[in-house]
């Protein structure tokens, strides 16, 4: 059972800081998923079976909470919402005002984050850190297959990565307008996992015909599937959709390059991969870009608050607005009071 004092302490933290803490934790969770997935795939688990089990575990985790906690606030499910859950068509975008410094800062920060992530992905440079010298890796406790670079196709990987980024961006942007129609966040996430299971089962019916591929052969594979389903899908999706609802899709997306940096560090430590100069350069660009975006969002919030405050008339202005009519009505009255005899 959770400590009540811990809950009160978390609630006392301002929401904007809660969002930042949640997004940083989310990036570490997703980074761990990438490293664990790499290990599982190198162990031999099927690329089709792995996401099926991942979505099934996430659905089993979220379904009880969604059913009992959101029973009263869950809107009725319509055909239109079902189609949006299944397709998540692109319908939203972030407003950026380039005539203000906050808008320029957000654009510049986003560009720096994208460039930083691209540098980490596309540029290696000289080796900065090597966990284990090549001559000693034979006796290393880290399996060679975890960090083995053989069989990699750099060009094909970059093409897949671009497709992943585009689909991920569309997915983030799409969740914000759908949440306005369907505010039950846990139920919304459960529906996504359910349709994910259906889609991957259809794909598996055509691409994965080997019954042995559906078996878990080792504890490492079981741990990878459990982490992917519970942490990287169930918990991560629930936290992410809360952040999208409170902070917007761009706020969530701007933290994505941090994930690239964390993956590079974790892969170096856990999988024995080398860390290159491109990782350092990319890290500096990502952190700088993140600062620019968050500063721009903060200035945008201040500007919106000042505009809203200026639009609300103060009590002094309210009394001044009535002052002329009061004076006018006073002048219109006779200087001497009328006699009450005529009443």
From TrEMBL:
A cellular-component GO term for this protein: membrane
InterPro entries xrefs: EamA_dom, EmrE-like, WAT1-related
Domain EamA: 156-294
Pfam families: EamA
Bilayer topology annotation: Multi-pass membrane protein
Gene Ontology molecular function: any one: transmembrane transporter activity
Membrane-traversing stretches: 17-36, 48-69, 75-93, 105-123, 154-174, 186-207, 222-243, 250-269, 275-294
Domain of life: Eukaryota
Subcellular location per the Swiss-Prot or TrEMBL entry: Membrane
Keyword NADP included in the entry's annotation: no
Chief site of localization: membrane
Keywords: Membrane, Transmembrane, Transmembrane helix
Similarity remark: Belongs to the drug/metabolite transporter (DMT) superfamily. Plant drug/metabolite exporter (P-DME) (TC 2.A.7.4) family.
Name of this protein: WAT1-related protein
Organism the protein comes from: Rhododendron simsii
């Amino acid at each position: 059972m959770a400590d009540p004092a811990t809950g009160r302490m978390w609630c006392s933290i301002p929401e904007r800081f809660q969002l930042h803490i949640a997004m940083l934790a989310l990036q570490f969770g997703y980074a761990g998923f990438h490293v664990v997935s790499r290990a599982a795939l190198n162990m031999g688990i099927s690329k089709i079976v792995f996401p099926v089990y991942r979505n099934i575990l996430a659905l089993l985790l979220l379904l009880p909470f969604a059913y009992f906690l959101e029973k009263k606030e869950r809107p009725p499910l319509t055909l239109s919402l079902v189609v949006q859950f299944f397709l998540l068509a692109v319908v939203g975008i972030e407003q950026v005002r380039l005539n203000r410094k906050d808008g320029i800062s957000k654009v510049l920060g986003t560009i720096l984050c994208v460039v930083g992530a691209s540098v980490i992905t596309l540029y290696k440079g000289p080796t900065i850190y090597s966990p284990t010298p090549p001559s000693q890796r034979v006796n290393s406790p880290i399996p060679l297959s975890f960090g083995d670079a053989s069989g990699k196709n750099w060009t094909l990987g970059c093409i897949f990565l671009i497709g992943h980024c585009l689909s991920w961006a569309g997915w983030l942007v799409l969740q914000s307008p759908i949440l306005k129609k369907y505010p039950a966040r846990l139920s919304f996430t459960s529906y996504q996992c359910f349709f994910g299971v259906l889609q991957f089962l259809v794909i598996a019916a055509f691409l994965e015909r080997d019954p042995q591929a559906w078996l878990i052969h080792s504890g490492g594979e079981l741990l990878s599937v459990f982490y992917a389903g519970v942490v990287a899908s169930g918990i991560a999706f629930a936290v992410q959709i809360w952040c999208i609802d409170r902070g917007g899709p761009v706020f969530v997306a701007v933290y994505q390059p941090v994930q690239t940096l964390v993956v590079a560090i974790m892969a170096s430590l856990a999988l024995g991969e080398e860390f290159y100069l491109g990782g350092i350069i990319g890290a500096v660009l990502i952190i700088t870009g993140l600062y620019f975006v968050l500063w721009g969002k903060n200035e945008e919030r201040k500007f919106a608050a000042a505009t809203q405050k200026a639009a609300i008339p103060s009590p002094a202005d309210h009394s001044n607005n009535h002052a002329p009519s009061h004076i006018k009505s006073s002048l219109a009255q006779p200087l001497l009071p009328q006699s009450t005899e005529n009443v």
